[in-house]
């Protein structure tokens, strides 16, 4: 426009022309701005083309990833289907085995229940038989009237391990000589075998005193030992059954009581009222039966004078052998100390103290053997 106006070419003239007429500015600058616009549009188009190319590449990658993922999923599904099929087959087989085991268990349980019922019936029958055997065994024990008449002031602590016992106590009053025989016998074993032995030995004692009229404690044991060994070894030469015992004969002589006794492994405990001491008397260490021979044995007997207030005790070894929870035996020392402590008590109190002391010592420990303690106070 500067040229058209006839003006010289200068910056001032250019500014002046464009200031006076802005349209000239638009006309003069239009090519520049159009070029710039086309340049920007071209670059934008290039960017769009690049973006579409990148987008296409991304789509291709996505499609490939989706295809790969689909292939992986198919392979995993195939693996899982195969695994499930295999596991199902294994579970089915295991279930069949389990079903068979359950059926066998049911059969076993039914068999066990049936056997239990049979055992319960047998046990009831056996228990009933043993209880009837108890009635028979009790029939050999001296009656309370006999004990009161013969011994007067006495107590008996009798505690079988099972229903019936290998222990028993014996009392017999021989009228012509006015002699009382009293004994505690501990036969081999306990329960039913011991009970059979107790009846056998009782009958021998009854026979030798009542029928054969032998009154010496030593001679009584000689006869019982000889007869018992012959009887037991009749069909079994190696039989070693027998018994331990203390046998006493009591007879009043003037102002004292003459106590003649024989023991086989079991001691006799005697409390002397005047000295307030309890002494333990030991006799023969012969176990009747196991060491017996068919010829008559010679048992030694001893004699003691007892006076009013004195007392003697007969006991099987079941009480001294009773263990506690620490597996310690009650022992003879503890038993003797207890007898000394309760000697001044009446018979009922002595019975109570012995029973309670045993319970406190043993606590929950099962009874080991039959227990018998018989105490007689001279009145």
Strand content: 15-25%
The CATH fourth-level homologous superfamily of the largest domain: PPM-type phosphatase domain
Shape, principal axes of CA atoms: rod-shaped
* CATH topology heading of the largest domain: Phosphatase 2c, domain 1
Low-confidence stretches: 291-296
CATH architecture of the largest domain, please?
Answer: 4-Layer Sandwich
Major sheet: size, sense and barrel closure?
A: 5 strands, antiparallel
From the N-terminal CA to the C-terminal CA, the straight-line distance is 169 Å
Strand order of the largest sheet: 1-10-9-6-7
- Mean pLDDT over all positions: 85
Q: Order of helices and strands, N to C?
A: HHHEEEHHEEEEEEHHE
Output the CATH class name of the largest domain: Alpha Beta
Could you characterize the architecture of this molecule?
With 379 residues, the chain is an alpha+beta fold. It folds into two domains: 1-109; 142-377, PPM-type phosphatase domain (Phosphatase 2c, domain 1, 4-Layer Sandwich). Helix content is 53%, strand content 19%. The chain has seven helices and ten strands. It has a five-stranded antiparallel sheet with strand order 1-10-9-6-7, sandwiched between helices. The chain has a five-stranded antiparallel sheet with strand order 2-3-4-5-8, with helices on both faces. Helix 1 packs across helix 2, helix 2 runs parallel beside helix 4 (191-211) and helix 4 (191-211) crosses helix 5. It is rod-shaped. Residues 291-296 have low confidence and may be disordered.
